[in-house]
Amino acid sequence: MNDWITIAIPKGRILEESVKLFGKIGIDCRELLSDSRKLIFENAEQRMRYMIVRATDVPTYVEYGSADLGIVGKDTLMEQGKDLYEPLDLKFGYCRMMVAEPANLARTDDPSGWSHIRIATKYPHVAETYFASKGIQVEIIKLYGSIELAPLVGLSERIVDLVSTGETLRQNGLVEVETIAEITTRLIVNRASLKTKYRQITEIIQGLEKELQPA
Predict the structure, then answer these.
(1) Separation CA 75–CA 81 (nearest Å)
(2) What's the whole-model pTM score?
(3) CA distances for 27 relative to 43, 116, 132, 146, angstroms
(4) Do residues 104 and 175 touch, judged by C-beta distance below 8 A?
(5) 53-88: per-residue pLDDT in tens?
């Protein structure tokens, strides 16, 4: 099975969009959308294997070569800093990584005057790097659940989190203050696989590239 291509994909919206995009270049992986609890799906005819994994685990499977390709949000790649090849922006799953704070604080707050702040986030590495680049000392509190809760109970003054429509922030009395990065879904490739399976992987990349070009 050395000539098979293995792709790591997370569940949810990324999975649906990926299946649709792959279908456009002739890769049939609709079985991934079934109610099956299987974690590995195989298409022997196309010599493709798919692994369903957590989004945060996709880069690890690809970096270590358990998967040749992966599909994952740019936020995960920024946070983990894995040694991967990132050839394509797949242009779906758009959101923004923001600094946000309570609206009543924002009325008088001036971000240019920040010197030492406390941030709650799922992205400690991104937050630390961002504030260090601005010369701001930051105390990071890592959370895994609803980050918006932290300022409401006094755990932190501000948060760094992903924002799509901003509705969750508004409902919790928070406002966006600064944009750290614009986030979309990316195709990632294992560096060794790109050499050993160059033809198959290049065909996939070029097919997707063509499909993603504006009409």
Answers:
(1) 10
(2) 0.93
(3) 9, 50, 43, 36
(4) no
(5) 999 999 999 999 999 999 999 999 999 999 999 999
